[in-house]
């Protein structure tokens, strides 16, 4: 089990990286045990992810698209998609970091990336909720969503660049792999709904 102190350190490290402070890496436990414990970040982010799914379903229902197989099926599909997403990226990155000759930095990178996901969803949820609730006018909502998305991509790239000590081009490749996996998993999940 992870301690409250480890959670606080993980979140604070991710927060420091969000402020472009490379010393944020100092707050992560990059040992094998710290690696496995960093997956608790997915549990912390799960309620926010669930709210995003509900927002998506409500928006779809308002557009005339309804759940075909019921709520239990939707919850099962989304839960599996979330779990697959949490573990697919680290598995792919194990090989990707080896190809970049950065295998020695793999554990610290995944630890940082896992905790950074909490910061990312912490930004994306309020933006999505505000747009869905109609608190942001239509065109501005699209611009705000795009700005949040680009900021998240930049942050993910910064985490990759800092944790792996790689250049911007390689970091962009890491973000591309993450996006590609996320879109593929979402596409399959949407087909199963």
Task: Characterise this structure.
This protein is an all-alpha fold and 193 residues long. It is built from seven helices and no strands. Helix 3 (40-62) packs parallel to helix 5, helix 4 packs antiparallel against helix 7 and helix 6 (138-164) packs across helix 7. The longest helix is centred in the middle third of the chain and has 29 residues, at 71-99. 24% of the residues are buried.
List the helices and strands and how they pair.
Layout: H1 4-18, H2 32-37, H3 40-62, H4 71-99, H5 106-132, H6 138-164, H7 168-192
Helix pairs in contact: 1-5, 3-5, 4-7, 5-6, 6-7
Q: What would you report as the Rg, rounded to the nearest angstrom?
A: 17 Å
Mean pLDDT: 92
Task: Catalogue the unreliable spans.
Answer: none
Report the structural category: mainly alpha
Task: Please report the distance between the alpha carbons of the first and last residues.
Answer: 33 Å
- Per DSSP, what share of the residues sits in E-state strands of 2 or more residues? under 5%
Report on the biggest sheet: none
Helix content: over 70%
Order of helices and strands: HHHHHHH
Got a strand count? Answer: 0
Basic shape: globular
Compute the number of helices. 7
């Amino acid at each position: 089990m992870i301690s409250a102190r480890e959670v606080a350190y993980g979140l604070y490290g991710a927060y420091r990286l969000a402020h472009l402070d490379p010393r944020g890496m100092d707050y992560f436990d990059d040992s094998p045990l710290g690696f496995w414990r960093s997956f608790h970040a997915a549990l912390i982010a799960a309620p926010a992810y669930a709210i995003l799914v509900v927002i998506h379903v409500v928006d779809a229902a308002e557009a005339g698209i309804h759940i075909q197989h019921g709520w239990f099926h939707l919850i099962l599909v989304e839960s599996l998609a979330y779990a697959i997403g949490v573990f697919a990226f680290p598995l792919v990155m194990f090989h990707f970091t080896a190809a970049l000759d950065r295998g020695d930095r793999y554990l610290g990178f995944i630890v940082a990336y896992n905790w950074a996901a909490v910061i990312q969803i912490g930004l994306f949820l309020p933006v999505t909720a505000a747009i869905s609730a109609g608190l942001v006018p239509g065109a501005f909502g699209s611009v705000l969503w795009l700005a949040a998305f680009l900021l998240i991509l930049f942050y993910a790239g910064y985490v990759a660049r800092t944790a792996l000590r790689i250049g911007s081009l390689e970091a962009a490749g890491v973000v591309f792999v993450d996006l590609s996996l996320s879109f593929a998993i979402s596409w399959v999940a949407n087909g199963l709904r």
